[in-house]
């Protein structure tokens, strides 16, 4: 018969199975005591055991801050360069615009000067080309005849021409002498200064009408003849 071991307060002996069960209960009790020591508001987490060979990772903010500052500096420098380039481009564009405006103003001024000079030249040419207006009367005929005589180097004054006209025809450009010796020869004197046809044809001045009754042509031809024979119409005081 096996030997029995008595426990406190019990009259029965504990078997091996009972001992193992008692040990488990004791372990559970210790665990319960350990959990009860954790504050009620604390949370518990279950973590997997880290591998034994994993190296601990160290973190530092110093290098990151340095890199960030360097990047910011580079970005700031790049921004300044971009602004400088933009400013240079704007300044160059403004300078080019001013230069272009100055060139256009200069060209416009030159065009205006050229146009003004051209208009002045045109006016002078028109004035030069346009014949001077003379009155259709004795005064106008003498003055126009004298302008033609001047161009052709024929002498004669207004007074000398006027005096001889009044004696010869009384200022009538259609006057004709039908009674003197020239008329008897069939070549009567005609016009303001009573010029015979052969003399008119011989001393006619180019640019005047080939009409002996034309007052201007008659005066110029007669003065041309008088200049050849007497030096000037001013020297004629009678029939010539």
UniProtKB/TrEMBL annotation:
Gene3D superfamilies: 1.10.530.10. Residues 86-120 form a coiled coil. It holds the Pfam family SLT. The keyword Membrane applies. PROSITE patterns: SOLCAR. The chain crosses the membrane at residues 20-38. Residues 165-235 form the Transglycosylase SLT domain. It comes from the Bacteria. The keyword Transmembrane applies. Keywords: Coiled coil, Membrane, Transmembrane, Transmembrane helix. This is Transglycosylase SLT domain-containing protein.
